[in-house]
Amino acid sequence: MIREAAVGNLREALLAEGRGAERVELCENLAEEGTTPSYGTIKMCRELLRIPIVVMIRPRGGDFVYDDAEFRVMLEDIRICRELHVDGISTGILRSDRTVDYERMRQIREACGSSLKVTFHKAIDETPDYEEAVRRLRAEGLIDRVLTSGQQETARKGLEQIRRIQDIEGLEVVAAGRITKENLPDLAAQLRVTSFHGKKII
């Protein structure tokens, strides 16, 4: 089982590793559900941590519809992540109608190359065509992972939706949504996924 801890700075990342997390999602501004951390934070985490690091690529809080300038920032941050040799990125881009922006996701996949794994984060939970979108993203090779609470506030409430995508070939489903070390065993017993995400997961 992979317990992915959402962390907001270097200190939290080191604490998560010390407490047994198998992977961290590195962000800033967790109060806004995470934005891209600084170059220095990414660099020091890469130097000091031994576990995989997934970096949030999100230029601001709010919605997941980005203008051209914001998208250029995202591509530049991905370049930095490749330069620093992190394990992967977590991102998501929607159109104004909240459907997935596949064209920009293709550009992100190209920017990541083969060295960075791509997670489509909880922006997926806002899409009207949830299951179809996840299947298409994976079928076109645009993502390696999806982070989801099944379009619900919590993973527990979203169990049925998560089950609809948990067996997609080649896709790592990362269940999320108020998962803690206390409720993790019960949730793990109800899903066929091996990765779980949360701020209090360890």
Provide the CATH top-level class.
Answer: Alpha Beta
* Helix and strand sequence: EHEHEHEHEHEHEHE
Distance from N terminus to C terminus (CA atoms, Å) equals 12 Å
Total beta strand runs: 8
Shape: globular
CATH structural fold name: TIM Barrel
**Order of strands across the biggest sheet?**
1-2-3-4-5-6-7-8
Low-confidence regions: none
Structural class determined from secondary elements: alpha/beta
Taking all Cα atoms into account, the compactness measure Rg is: 16 Å
CATH architecture: Alpha-Beta Barrel
Largest sheet: 8 strands, parallel, barrel
Number of spatially distinct domains = 1
Which labels suit this protein?
alpha/beta; 202 residues; TIM Barrel; 7 helices
What does this structure look like?
The protein has 202 residues and is α/β, with parallel strands linked by helices. It has a single domain (2-198), classed as TIM Barrel (Alpha-Beta Barrel). The chain has seven helices and eight strands. It has helices spanning 10-18, 39-48, 68-84, 102-112, 130-139, 159-165, 184-190, and strands spanning 2-7, 23-26, 53-56, 88-91, 117-120, 145-148, 172-175, 195-198. Strands 1-2-3-4-5-6-7-8 form an eight-stranded parallel β-barrel. α7 links the parallel β7 (172-175) and β8 (195-198). 42% of the residues are buried. The mean pLDDT is 97.
Short description:
This protein has 202 residues and is α/β, with parallel strands linked by helices. It has one domain: Copper homeostasis (CutC) domain (TIM Barrel, Alpha-Beta Barrel). It is built from seven helices and eight strands.
